[in-house]
Amino acid sequence: MAALHIKKGSTSHSAYNLRPNFSDMKERHTLAILVDNEPGVLARVIGLFSARGYNIESLTVAEVDHAGHLSRITIVTTGTPQVIEQIKAQLGRIVPVHDVHDLTVEGAVVERELALIKVEGEGEKRIEALRLAEIFRANVVDSTLTSFVFEMTGAPDKIEAFAELMQPLGLVEIARTGVAALSRGA
Fold first, then answer.
1. Which of 30, 76, 92, 177 could bond to 57 as cystine, CB 3.0-4.6 Å?
2. Which fold has domain 22-102?
3. For 66-170, where are the E strands, in sequence order?
4. CA distances from 40 to 61, 69, 95 (A)
5. What is the pLDDT of residue 95?
6. What CATH code would you report for 109-183?
7. pLDDT tens-place string over residues 145-155
């Protein structure tokens, strides 16, 4: 049986080293990618993530320059700092990609998301759902005798908090657009 030899004072290979290595901590990053608006580009970008096992928490895509045929892909992902750097480098090598910005490291960011939230309920639950919607500034965009559909725009954590409060009141379904983000300032 082979013996494990560890230098005295070394903690890098010790089973007792329980302190987290901060370079291994996962971080949430919002990436803005400017690409040619042509068939297959989104599939190539997403293929990079899936082929390497990177997770996408949010994805939005829209044309931002009709004359220049450019689209903006906004991706929210998580990973260690090394993985995020690897993702950015690999995205930059894809031919139809013009620009890659890590909004998370470039400074303050404005992030917004749109959600449609369907809640069923009657009586007190219905009244409570409407009261909470007013507090969260959610708009009623559809109403029946037994349900509401609320429209809400805000930061992802605000939408998650509202959905969590609606759960015991009869949350049926939620549809979210994904994060749209821009850097603040000039």
1. 76
2. Alpha-Beta Plaits (3.30.70)
3. 70-79, 97-102, 109-120, 139-143, 147-154
4. 13, 14, 12
5. 83
6. 3.30.70.1150
7. 999 999 999 99
